[in-house]
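ping. complex inputs:
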Amino acid sequence: MKSMTKVLSMMCAGLLMASVFAGCGGEKKAGDTIKVGADIDLTGGSASYGKSAQNGIKLAFDQVNAKGGVLGKKMELVVADNKSEAAEATNAMQKLVAQDKVVAVIGPNLSSAVIASTAVNTGAKVLVISPMGTNPNVTVDKDGKTKDFMFRACFIDPFQGTVMAAFAKDTLKAKKVAILIDNSSDYSKGLAQFFETAFVKGGGTIVAKESYLQKDTDFKATLTKIKATNPDMIYVPGYYQEVGMIVKQAREMGLTVPMAGGDGWDSAKLPEIAGKSALNKTFFSSLYSAEDKSELNKNFVAAYKKAYNETPDVFAALAYDSAMLIVNSIKTANSADSVKIKDALAKTAGFNGVAGSVTFDPQHNPVKSAFIIEYKDGAQAFNTKINP
Amino acid sequence: MDMGSFAQQFAQQLINGISLGSIYALIALGYTMIYGIIKLINFAHGDIYMLGAYMGFVATTMLGLSFVPALIFAMVAAGIAGIIIERVAYRPMRNAPRIAILITAIGVSFFLEYGMILIATPQPRTFPAVFEASVYNFYGLIVNSQQILILVISLVLMAGLTYIVNHTKVGKAMRAVSFDADAARLMGIDIDKIISMTFALGSSLAAAAGVLVGVYYNSIDPLMGMMPGLKAFIAAVLGGIGIIPGAMLGGVIMGIVEAMVSGFFSSTFRDAASFVILILILLYRPSGILGKNVKEKV
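pong. complex structure:
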């Protein structure tokens, strides 16, 4: 055990020294470009996420370079494929910080991959911003201490509960809400808890709090109980399979009040299971909507369509925002030094991105806008953007 | 909660419970018939119910049949599957110890579940809406046309089964085999044929339940049979295993208890309640509600 620790500490020391040299080398070679790495999933199970992210980052840097770059230098993107695997993400990170000597890294998209590769970039003092790593442990360690060089561009899952509480109170004018929780999922419990806290704080009442388990099929008994409490809205932060049946059975029971949930509702299967008409008056929270009418987003969608001939998805939008956040921090820091960029990024406040405004909290989680999507006759329609 | 709304909620839960219970009853009938005739707890029975649901899915989507022909198709297909399973898996074990045949049943159950995952993928499938559900409102009580349909079809099938068992020659033979297989054989009854018939009947009832559930919840998956299979087993024990009216009664009681527990306590206690019933009945009345305490012959 002891020798193991010794080896580890020696490795750490070696890594630190390597990073010192790397830093020197970077300064010297800096020349006329600023290198930013992308540790993304171009092959493997989540390859479509990585492809979108690459498109988003590339578009961002092309736009910046077309306007003359930053601090008189062009942005240069170095892409490393992590094959959708945690171990490969670490290798890719190693390559980016040691070999390519990038000043910042965007990615990985998967939380597990971000957490696995944290030691590498932290050792090399290079900041990482994960576009879609939603797990709270991406930016904080087990003791709740913020990881200095780790950031994310998306909000953490439970934040959706807070957003939906605001929407329920302000837009739906709901006063009494029933919550139906998937008891077998931490995601669902987290959303429900944040929803309840925010909704009660805003003066609302939770009239019923019921739960179900994954793979349940009959919800009529529970819904009958909920119906007896006369709620103005039902919050069901679950996944589409059970949510579909819950919505269907609720409508059959004559429960016509609005129903809402989180991004677990975002599936083409949902209208099939619940039925298109039953889904009317249902809403869910999401990180991004291409239909958002802000000037910034309209320009982004148009440029993206022109470059890649498709509508940007949430991965493209958040990777684009990540790239722009880094560019913005380089400008504020007035330096291409990784540590200075990191300090500037941590102080980011009111940054305008295509997926809404971003302000980093002390845990490096962005306090940001969220989007409410409504189902209308089985199709998703952008309803509103909620700013923090 | 005032008295009126309590009564209304109670009545609504009763309706929910009866429609759920008639599904359990249909599955429990097969359990009880098979136990009655070869003293085997057929743990693959819940998976026959799943198989029936998939057959109904195939009939409505790929063959384009309407509801009633699809129901018959699924029942016939599952009946044949039941005969094959008995022939291949259980008949060679007829004289083996009962524990061996029970383990075989568990093996068949896994075979059906994971075989279906192999063929149809583990993803749940959406059962097509074969007819629109209309909702009736009686003084605040909500009844769905599909709930009525489940109840009616269950009653018709149970009546049919009772007729077959009590008033036909095959039924008489079944009762004879169940009572004393050796004596029945001496009377010239082809026991193998009768056992096959029993499996076919029991399996087709389970398949009917599968199709009804597919239509009602419009979602089916390869592991859908596990929980209802266990619940139906409890229902069969509750009513008195081997007794046909007992299975119907047990099924309906189970459905109502589950609805009441989720409605007035918490839905997370629902499954626990079912298994508590099993423990209580085994402790205090192992022969079931309708069962008579028969002394074992030595």
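Chain A has two domains: 2-155+294-368, 159-286.
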